[in-house]
Amino acid sequence: MIPYKKPFDPLSFFLRWEWILVLLIIFISIINSNLSPYFLDFSNLFDMTFNFLEKGFITLPMTYVIISGNLDFSVADILALSSCIMGLAFESGMSIWLSAGLALGLGAIAGLINGNLITRLKIPSFAATLGTAALYRGLTWLLLENRGVTGFPEEFTLIGRGDIPGTEIPIPLVLFFLLFIPAAIFLHRSTFGRYVFAIGGNKEVSRFSGIKNDKIIRTIFIISGIISALSGILISARFGSVRADVVPNATLDVVTIVVLGGVSIAGGSGTLIGVALSMFLLGIVKYGLNLMNIPPQIQIVITGLLLIVSVFIPQIVNRIKKRKEEVKRK
Amino acid sequence: MSKRIPGPKSRFVQNAVRSRQFPIFVLMMTIIVVVSLRTPAFLSLGNFEDIMLDIAMLAIVSIGQMIVMITTGIDISVGSILAFSAMAVGSMVRANPEITPIIAILFGSLIGAALGCLNSFVITAMKIPPIITTLGTMSFFRGLVYVISQGTWVMSHQLPERFKEFTIQTDLGLPFLVIIALVLGVISYLFVNRIPIGRQIYAVGCNQKAARLAGIRVKRVEFLAYAISGLLSGVAGVMWVSRYAIAANNTATGFETQTIAACVIGGVSVFGGIGNIPGVFLGAFFIGMINNAINLIGISEFWKQAFYGMAIILAVVLDAVFNNRFKNMRAKNGEK
Fold it and tell me: Domain extents for chain A?
């Protein structure tokens, strides 16, 4: 299940899901550049990343969560609640950076609650997080009602919508890679990451081999809460306002990106590079749909279908593989 | 799966006291007393009828949600199925005002059942977890609402009077909507308690492996569960257009949260295998009552959302605590 070190095999290396994603990205880019001559313009491409990067941040912890065999449905609502707290703290006269810190802390607490419900009370993760999702969103509505908080200082909104000085690279993109690289190393090259795979592969076996399942799952959910809060801060900075109805469909997008990135929904397999690629893929697909003037209400049809198809394809592939192995054995 | 504590032969009262719904019943009575002390209007018959009208659709959809949750699944696409059926029936009635309500209901339930079967197919044949399937179809169906409506709404003045009034007619003493909810409640009560395939739903939820070994066609039972859930959502969709006289693209967004709340408050276990119709009606009534009380006392509307969340979490936590204690008890007694 968890080999110490895989031998390099060129055939299986090039047959990986990630290459298919790369091909798809190239394919969609060609279509898009036929739709609009401005698509392959660098500043345009960088601008486009704003549309999905905030959600992209959440895909990083969500990958951990799904690989460990769980699901977190409350990410969009932790995002809303923590950005709402940030807004309220800012409104009451706190400095914006302190309020942002408060939001991160709140995200951690929200994640801790999720983690405890799942590990200590043994509630299935989807049920626990569906419940807390309703709770967090409800608290957000309660605290903020239907007004918005605005008036954030310039230097704060810059982290959401600004570029690195002198270039056209957006700051959130840089932040994303600053988080992505350690996240990938941590998942694929550290003991903790191996444990995450082990838990997702087989919970019982990992427990019997001395892995503290509960502690690791709690840690993952806390991180998920913190990153959701961070994403909330960035979204508030980009919009320059905080509202209770922010990103209603984010959970769908995040789960779709992770699953499309080749992470098995049953847990135990997947790579973070695949997730990053699928994030860009979904980003340019949506950009292309926008170029074709398809309204967002119809775009969710495509996202929903994509979610189901991207869970279905690996299953078919696995079934065929299994059948081949059985034939070989005989 | 019996959870009875050993003791003297149980009678009705003892059974009721020991039931999973008893704490919520006591809580409900307390709230009724407290609220009616503050606003006596709360206790009037008219207000009671209002609550019943408000929760009828919630109760109908929650029955389907309960059946799905008993099989250890979940259906978060109910709100979108409801919206789709509402939009389809609404546009149909707008185009042909002479259609009788009965045909509209049949049409709506057919649409709902078809969408539910799509869920069932993806879950049982393509073997995709229910939560992922219905997350996908939730937005898929919601998008389809937009596709068939082309972004327009079915407005009140475009619907014939007869269609708008049939849900609140009181020819039989109660509003027709409430009667439908009660009839569907009785039918589904008989279905899950008296019909073999209804009992098999519980068997599948308690222990899927054992159910399979006992010769139950697990796939077929699961297929049926999501189809029923879709069908009931479709029926509720027709009721929705008639009662609120509008079919919009965002009809019933977030409705799935309410149905899940009604179920878990009414004693349906998220671990599967446990739940009954009277409980679900109680849960739905509890939600309707709280909504009503919030309006009457004049607290901010936004408390409702927070209330659903707190209620779900509290009910699920209690459920988990009992479930774990029950498991420990069995482990001590040496059972497996």
Answer: 47-248
